[in-house]
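agent> Task received from the user: take the single chain below, predict its 3D structure, and emit structure tokens. No templates, no multimer pairing.
agent> Plan: (1) validate residues, (2) run structure prediction, (3) serialize to tokens, (4) report one or two observations.
agent> Step 1 OK, no nonstandard residues flagged.
tool_call: predict_structure(input=
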Amino acid sequence: MRGPHNIWRLIRTGATFERAGAMRLALEAMDAPRSIRIAARVIGWPVQWLGLRGDPSEPPLLRALTALGPAYIKFGQLMSTRPDVVGVELAQELRVLQDKLPAFDTDLAKAEIESELGIKIDEMFEEFSEPVAAASLAQVHKAVVRATGKVVAVKVLRPDVERAFMKDVDAFFLAAAIIETLSPASRRLRPRAVIEHFAGVVRGELDLRMEASAADEFAANTKDDEGFSVPALVWELSSRRVLTTEWVEGISLGDVEAVLATGQDPTEFAARILQTFLRHALRDGYFHADMHQGNLKRGPNGDLIALDFGIMGRIDTYTRKVYAEILMGFLQRDYHRVAEAHFEAGYVPADQDVDAFAQALRAVGEPIFGQDAAHVSMARLFGHLFDVTERFGMQTRTELILLQRTMVVVEGVTRTFDSNMNMWDVSAPIIERYILDHLGPRAVVRDLSATMRVLSRFGPRLPALAETALMNLNEHPEPRKNTTPGWLWGLTGVATGIAITALFIV
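)
tool_result: status=success, residues=506
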């Protein structure tokens, strides 16, 4: 991690940021401490002539990232999901960062596909187009399957992209280690954990089997969702470096005028986008975490179509319940309940004052809820929430940051169709339904049923467990601490377990 090649990469990065005029902006946006600012300028300023020039027509930060290449572009895109690290304004700017690399030669793409699938292109496809889209990791071709006549999209990784990416990721780890050393306060944001997350995302995207699996799971979860669809996977034409799906026609949500020209009701469409995302996140715990306009289409039948499943979010059942309670608390303006949910989940250290935290949350929520619909913004809410939770020592939780960032992105998409939509009013039915299903009486019954199933599976093993426990107690007796022998407590616990299991089985 600390080899000369990584040091050189950091020097080149600092020089490029200085040359593009992005160094100061980035450091200010992240509120970097003085030690980090000095180190960054020392690395970059004297040798800025070594930096890459980039496109002078772009804003400084985007100019630097695109000049440095695929790994930096991808890292910039990921940092748009981390307003807690780079600040809300910079995260918003990075959202527009797109992969701006030229396509690689179609003959190379064909060779990669043939090598991966073990079949000649002409045997697989009747037609195979020039690239229709190119990104930092891969590019896409439109093709027609010879055996079935089905029109498909074929995604193929860039040649040798894995090695190039992981070299830059090594340098990112060195940078994170330097930051944590020079700025102990930065450890709350866990810079190395951020890079670990980034490396994990990239590794997943560099194995298209993982994206195929994600798309397939997402499609299975959402197959009954009215007005929403996912392209079907073609497994037999997919592998580690090739991903094939059905080709879907539609209008990119980036072309708002074209979408509205179809007669689409903008208010209904905006509400559907937001509610669809919340339904996936809360109901399934598995959601599309890159829902910008370029990854969404309106199909000919009016469906909302999702594309590109390289970045997906997953949250466990318990976290979903906590998050729903937090959102519901804000909806009801019950800030003390929001504070309690943070403490109960362990998000805020127990030594903090719950009443003071609730008061701080009120200062976050009330100014926002007092605005008209056009200004009721999740982006603003989460931006202020990051400040408050930092003040109360809350540790960064990657899965929640990703969820919150995606909500902010979805808000931006919905407002392009209905600028006056009240995000909270539209969200409320989905959140309330989740609360009813997962925190109400039905949820208690369902949880008890799950407990019964677990206990029933252990029923046949309880006699052996009891015998083992008694033998261990006899061999290693504990010092007497009270008038009740320890072995009796152990036997009582085992007997209680047996009784409960028997009751549930009966």
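agent> Step 4: summary for the user.
The first strand starts at residue 125 and ends at 134.
agent> Done.
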